[in-house]
Amino acid sequence: MARYTGSTCRLCRREGTKLFLKGERCYKEKCAIERRNYAPGQHGQKNRKVVGYGLQLQEKQKIRNHYGLMEKQFRRTFERAQNMKGVTGENMLSLLERRLDNVVFQLGFASSRSQARQLVRHGHFQIGGRKVNVPSFEVRVGHEVVLREKARANPIILSNLESAGGRGVPSWLEMNRTDFAGKVVALPSREDMKQPFQEQLVVELYSK
User: Fold this and answer.
1) How far is it, in rounded angstroms, from Cα 5 to Cα 7?
2) Is 67 helix (H, G, I), strand (E, B) or coil?
3) Rg of the chain taking only CA atoms, in angstroms
């Protein structure tokens, strides 16, 4: 499976905003945006005015990188959202939020979405009593994501759960730390997604 293997901090600097790709580092002074808040490369400090198509492309890249998707995966998600009832942009974000790797991250089992993706691929979670190792698995209302017994002593996961307390869990999810389980109690609404995305720009980009 294709995946981005370059510097994740470079992505944040290129988009000019925190995408929270490096876990705890993003909340500290070592964050690349805090230290060098300009685009990477030789001409990164030059002021460039981005308008029209450039803005639309930048917003698409921002959302795509935030969730860790490649272009083909992201385009496929957009097309699914387009065929659903409701507002296309909000449908797209709802589908992205309900990816299993994102849910694992939001529940606090992982410090970043990339780490959550790795934990899922290693088969540490089950849904409905069955092991699921596909990061893009669509979690639905009523699904319970449970950490498997053999992974409950994993020091990395335990440390993540400890430090995730201050981050909180979105209102559309419920977390039971005693049972190492989280449940989807509702579909995520646009108000639940705190990211300052302008998803309408992505709709305009793909509608050309």
Assistant:
1) 7
2) helix
3) 18
87: tokens are 């507002």
Single pTM value for the model: 0.80
Q: Residue 196 class from Cβ within 10 Å (0-12 exposed, 13-18 middle, 19+ buried)?
A: exposed
Summarize pLDDT for 23-61 with one digit per residue, the tens: 665 555 666 666 666 566 655 566 666 668 888 998 999
Note the pLDDT of residue 154.
94
As a whole number of angstroms, the distance between CA 77 and CA 126 comes to 23
Q: How far apart are CA 186 and CA 15, in angstroms?
A: 31
> ∠ CA 158-163-165 to the nearest 5 degrees?
105
* Residues in the chain where the model's pLDDT stays below 70: 1-51, 165-166
80, 176, 185 from 98: Cα distances, Å: 13, 18, 12
- Count of other CB atoms within 10 angstroms of residue 130: 6
